[in-house]
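Hypothesis: this fold can be encoded by more than one sequence.
Test: take the structure tokens below, design a sequence, compare later.
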């Protein structure tokens, strides 16, 4: 069975009609690849269309304000992707005179671009012979060839990359790379794959051995940590609040939030009022407070679960710190904060 030929033919018949498949513009392909990392097509597609509309060229993206880029990205998560996207656009315009990199090695110099993204762009746009290996590819190859090497081990990464490279269609590497990824996304799915109508069923080792649900093998995930976040939602009589930008490195870097107090464990109203940080914050201000959500909102990130409470604090004035409450929606914020803003009634 010619694995490569069958998949390429399957792709020509079954591929989804997506806007970035109608072009070989490396800027558009780059946008699609960065946006679709850790993101499903149905969620990422509106973001791709928004970025192409708002920043039709790499110059437009480079000249944009970072706050506008982060605001457009809001809700996608993994915000470092947006910051890297913006930084790379600036690099392309300032260092490369706006000419997008045309080789795998040059693409690797862009922030946020690794082997997978460089392989995808270079093969799709410039026919370079570099095989992509993502979650979909791992799944297809591990099942078809019956490979139980953990995909997130050093040995597994090398083994699957070597195999993917051997299978590459030398005449049309871009279509083959897209074919194997599409096949994993829509046919050889993580759960309930369409094995009965699979064009590879006669030679699939996992199907023959009954191990489809066991592959690919992955080493245990990093332990998930638990954190307690207490956001201070200040509201003055003239309808102002305090919004702070996170400048420290992390997933929410440069996004905005209400003042935050982290605690070792969940705190109630009595503990909150006597908390030294709260007392220090309001030692010269008269205030009243209530908790918006007595039960913590659990916001799940990849390696941590945030148990969050929003404390509504009413004060007379905020001096020079405050911004109009009506403006908070214009700032780029984490989904956790934007969901609260959409839910809470600031008009009381």
């Amino acid at each position: 069975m010619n694995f490569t030929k069958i998949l390429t033919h399957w792709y020509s018949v079954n591929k989804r009609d997506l806007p970035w498949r109608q072009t070989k513009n490396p800027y558009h392909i780059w946008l699609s690849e960065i946006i679709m990392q850790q993101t499903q097509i149905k969620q990422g597609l509106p973001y791709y269309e928004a970025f192409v509309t708002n920043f039709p060229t790499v110059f437009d993206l480079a000249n944009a304000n970072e706050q506008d880029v982060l605001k457009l990205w809001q809700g996608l998560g993994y915000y470092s992707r947006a910051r890297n996207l913006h930084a790379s656009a600036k690099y392309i315009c300032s260092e490369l005179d706006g000419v997008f990199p045309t080789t795998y090695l040059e693409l690797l110099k862009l922030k946020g671009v690794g082997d997978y993204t460089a392989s995808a762009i270079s093969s799709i746009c410039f026919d370079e012979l570099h095989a992509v290996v993502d979650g979909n590819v791992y799944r297809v190859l591990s099942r078809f060839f019956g490979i139980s090497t953990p995909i997130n081990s050093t040995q597994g990464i090398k083994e699957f990359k070597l195999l993917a490279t051997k299978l590459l269609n030398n005449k049309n590497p871009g279509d083959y790379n897209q074919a194997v990824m599409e096949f994993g996304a829509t046919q050889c799915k993580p759960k309930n794959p369409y094995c009965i109508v699979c064009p590879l069923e006669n030679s699939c080792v996992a199907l023959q051995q009954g191990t489809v649900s066991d592959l690919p093998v992955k080493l245990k995930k990093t332990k998930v940590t638990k954190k307690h976040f207490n956001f201070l939602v200040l509201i003055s009589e003239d309808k102002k609040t305090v919004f702070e930008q996170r400048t420290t490195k992390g997933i929410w870097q440069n996004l905005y939030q209400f003042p935050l107090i982290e605690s070792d464990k969940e705190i109630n109203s009595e503990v909150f009022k006597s908390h030294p940080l709260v007392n220090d914050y309001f030692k010269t201000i008269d205030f009243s407070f209530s908790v918006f959500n007595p039960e913590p909102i659990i916001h799940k990130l990849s390696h941590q679960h945030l148990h969050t409470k929003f404390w509504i604090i009413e004060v007379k004035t905020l001096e020079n710190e405050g911004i109009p409450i009506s403006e908070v929606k214009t700032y780029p914020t984490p989904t956790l904060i934007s969901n609260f803003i959409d839910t809470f009634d600031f008009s009381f």
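The chain has two domains: 3-214, 225-343. Residues 80-95 form the longest helix (16 residues).
Hypothesis status: open.
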